[in-house]
Design goal:
Protein name: Hsp70 family protein
Largest sheet: 6 strands, mixed
Bound molecules: adenosine-5'-triphosphate, magnesium ion
Organism: Tahibacter amnicola
Distance between the termini: 11 Å
Number of helices: 15
Keywords: ATP-binding, Coiled coil, Nucleotide-binding
Helix content: 40-55%
InterPro entries: ATPase_NBD, Hsp_70_fam, MreB_MamK-like
CATH architecture of the largest domain: 2-Layer Sandwich
CATH class of the largest domain: Alpha Beta
CATH superfamily of the largest domain: ATPase, nucleotide binding domain
Shape: globular
Radius of gyration: 25 Å
Strand content: 15-25%
CATH topology of the largest domain: Nucleotidyltransferase, domain 5
Coiled coil: 52-87
């Protein structure tokens, strides 16, 4: 049995076509899962935690500073409220909308939070001291659960979006880790498919971007394909081939059209944006692909910009004395080497309030949590004018208020690159397409849809299944092979 696998930067999915019918492989209750793996570490037993006098003093000090932060947040709220009330009526409504009352936490909430923090740093210290925190490979956790486990627990190794590292010049150790992670993901898919389809699954067509993210040019794509092949073989696939992701999306659209049309297929994903021009529909067995174009940028790059623009100023971005690259390292959660770099900086002499905020961001799990908020706000601000994020995990009472300007700044660079690659495609095809078929999670963004429409004003946009367009086409192709 041959299946189609969409090993995505953000989400992975798999499906098979059996007797012309699409069978999506389920992952828990879902048709796809976050491409993230968490390997828990064998850590000291939390039950060994005993509240000594020194630790009790730490708890008390946490409670005192949380109480003070709560008081400050309350004063600040009251002051902003009275300032807003003094404004003329037309500006008052908008100003009031931006102010929300800080949540008041009871003494027992404060004590519980302080105990959690103290126990967490005790665990961190114990792990550092024991050096025995070996990784438990067999207990790997996949998907959003992996990120949750890392954020709440912190002990172990999380790799998010391993696909975005495949095209980079990796040191041998890092290369082994990424290969290992990709193998785990593909094995998870193969075993899930085998269980659900009731037959051994040993052959697959994998989607691939036109151009992988890379700092080595075309060599990056060659390396990524060879690493993926090796990972798939290690995961138990005896037969592996690749199909460009936009060609797979074209295949999916092809199966839905009774009459032929020439369509520009645009897949805006998490890591890359992939375009193909194809004749789809009608009696032919598969679409005719005239050309393809790739942009190695996608939704995760927009998340990084969102984080840099909306959150990092709270950590001192733009202040003298803190190198700007520290903030990009912190925001690049897909890159284990950059994350390690960020954690290695010493902020003891950085001025307040940035010192303790940066140190809190260096705690395991914190950058992943911040990135989650950046992604959530990117999506939220696509539809809403304002947004607010609680950053209690960094500092009690700390919040970030966001508006459309943050959204536009985060998208700006990406939209410029998108226009440039669409321009290249438009020039190369030299005719007006009959339609534009959109897929990929980022294609849900109104800013991206309107940018594409504006470049092809007379061409109808066909909104495909954003999540499953590529995997459906891969499954159809797998059934033909
Ligand atoms: N409503 C939305 N607005 C903007 N972005 C969105 C929305 N919904 C999902 N996304 C983004 O879509 C991206 C995931 O898309 P998709 O699942 O197509 O990526 P992928 O296939 O994993 O990546 P790639 O194909 O690049 O390897 C994420 O960056 C996510 O934040
Ligand atoms: Mg994709």
């Amino acid at each position: 049995m041959q299946i189609g696998i969409d090993f995505g930067t953000s989400y992975s999915a798999a499906a098979a076509c059996i007797d012309g019918k699409l069978h999506g492989v389920r992952f828990g209750d879902h048709a796809q899962f976050r491409t993230a793996v968490f390997f828990p570490a064998a850590v000291p037993n939390p039950d060994d935690f005993v509240l000594t006098d020194a630790l009790e003093a730490e708890v008390e000090s946490h409670i005192r500073s949380a109480r003070a932060a709560q008081r400050r947040a309350l004063d600040n709220w009251q002051q902003r409220l009275s300032e807003a009330q003094a404004l003329p009526a037309e500006r008052r409504v908008q100003a009031m909308a931006l102010i929300s009352e800080p949540a008041e936490r009871t003494e027992s909430d404060l004590r519980a939070a302080a105990l959690r923090a103290v126990r967490h740093s005790w665990m961190e210290r114990s792990v550092r001291d024991s050096r025995s925190a070996s990784v438990k490979v067999n207990d790997a956790i996949f998907g959003d659960d992996a990120i949750d486990a890392y954020i709440s627990d912190g002990f172990g190794h999380l790799v998010e979006s391993p696909k975005s590292m495949l095209g980079y010049n990796l040191l041998p150790g890092a290369k082994k880790i990424i290969l290992h992670i990709a193998t785990h993901v593909l094995e998870h898919i193969r075993l899930s498919a085998t269980r659900q389809l009731g037959v051994p699954v040993r052959a697959a067509i994998l989607g691939r971007p036109v151009e992988f993210k890379s700092a080595m040019g075309p060599e990056g794509t060659t390396q990524a394909l060879s690493m993926l092949t090796e990972a798939a073989q290690a995961a138990g696939f005896e037969q592996v081939s690749f199909l460009e992701e936009p060609a797979a999306a074209a295949m999916h659209y092809h199966t839905q059209r009774a009459t032929p049309e020439r369509s520009l297929i645009v897949d805006v994903g998490g890591g890359t944006t992939d375009i193909a021009y194809a004749e789809v529909g009608g009696p032919a067995a598969s679409p005719r692909i005239f050309g393809s174009w790739g942009l190695p940028k996608g939704g995760t790059d927009i998340d990084i910009e969102m984080s840099l623009n909306a959150f990092m100023p709270l950590f001192g971005r733009g202040e003298p004395g803190i190198p700007v690259h520290h903030f990009r390292e912190a925001a690049s959660v897909q890159s284990p080497p950059l994350q390690r770099e960020f954690r290695s900086h010493n902020y003891r002499n950085t001025p307040a309030p940035f010192r303790h905020r940066l140190m809190a961001l260096q705690r395991l799990g914190a950058t992943s949590q911040l990135n989650r908020e950046a992604e959530r706000m990117k999506i939220h601000l696509g539809a809403e004018r304002l947004g607010r994020v609680d950053l209690d995990f960094i500092e009690d009472g700390l919040t970030a208020d966001l508006d459309r300007a943050h959204h536009d700044a985060a998208y700006g660079g990406f939209l410029d690159r998108l226009r440039a690659v669409l321009d290249r495609a438009r020039l190369a095809i030299g005719e007006t397409p009959d339609s534009i078929f959109l897929t990929g999670g980022s294609s849900r963004s109104p800013a991206i849809q309107s940018t594409i429409s504006a470049m092809f004003p007379a061409v109808p946009l066909v909104i495909g299944d954003a999540s499953l367009g590529v995997v459906s086409g891969l499954a159809a192709a797998a059934a033909m092979a």
